[in-house]
From TrEMBL:
Record organism: Micrurus lemniscatus lemniscatus
Coiled coil ranges: 2-148
Keywords: Coiled coil, Cytoplasm
Subcellular location(s) of the protein: Cytoplasm
Keyword Signal: no
Keyword hit for Coiled coil: yes
Name by which UniProt lists this protein: Leucine zipper tumor suppressor 1
InterPro entries recorded: LZTS
Gene Ontology biological process terms in this record: regulation of dendrite morphogenesis; regulation of synaptic plasticity
Length: 161
């Protein structure tokens, strides 16, 4: 039994050595990995900060996007209003052009009528001038006849007495 205990003790001591070796190995690894772990923890912390910053930037970008979207919608509404106004103005312009064309044609008719009246007036003036000349000639003849008649009456009267 003593041998068995010694053997067991020996096994336990070997196992202890193995475990101590493993412990030393783990401690070396811990010492080796500690800076890497610390660096990794630092990087995680840094990345968390970057993520927070990116989240904030994303939020700001979304706010700006919403603002720009509203601005675009407002501009589209203004554009629609301006197009409607332009359409109304084009209709007005078309109506005014039609009216102007009608007035131009009316003016042309009036100008032709005026020219016809001027021509008619000119002809009447010429007739009036001819008639006035004729009247003047007739007056002259009448005056001459009256004078002749006076003379004739006087001469007739002298002859009768």
């Amino acid at each position: 039994e003593h041998l068995q205990l010694q053997e067991e003790l020996s096994n336990l001591m070997k196992e202890q050595d193995l475990l101590e070796n493993k412990l030393r190995t783990y401690e070396k690894e811990k010492t080796t990995f500690a800076p890497a772990l610390e660096e990794t923890q630092w990087e995680v912390c840094q990345k968390s900060g970057e993520i927070s910053l990116l989240k904030q930037q994303l939020k700001e970008s979304q706010t700006e996007l919403n603002s720009k979207t509203n601005e675009v919608l407002n501009l589209k509404a203004q554009l629609k209003d301006l197009r409607a106004k332009m359409e109304m103005l084009e209709i007005k312009i078309h109506d005014l052009e039609d009216s102007l064309h009608a007035k131009a044609m009316e003016l042309e008719v009036c100008e032709n009528e005026l020219q016809r009246k001027k021509n008619e007036s000119e002809l009447l003036r010429e007739k009036v001038n001819l008639l006035e000349q004729e009247i003047a000639e007739l007056r002259t003849e009448l005056t001459i006849l009256r004078e002749e008649m006076k003379c004739g009456v006087v001469s007739i009267g002298l002859e009768e007495s």
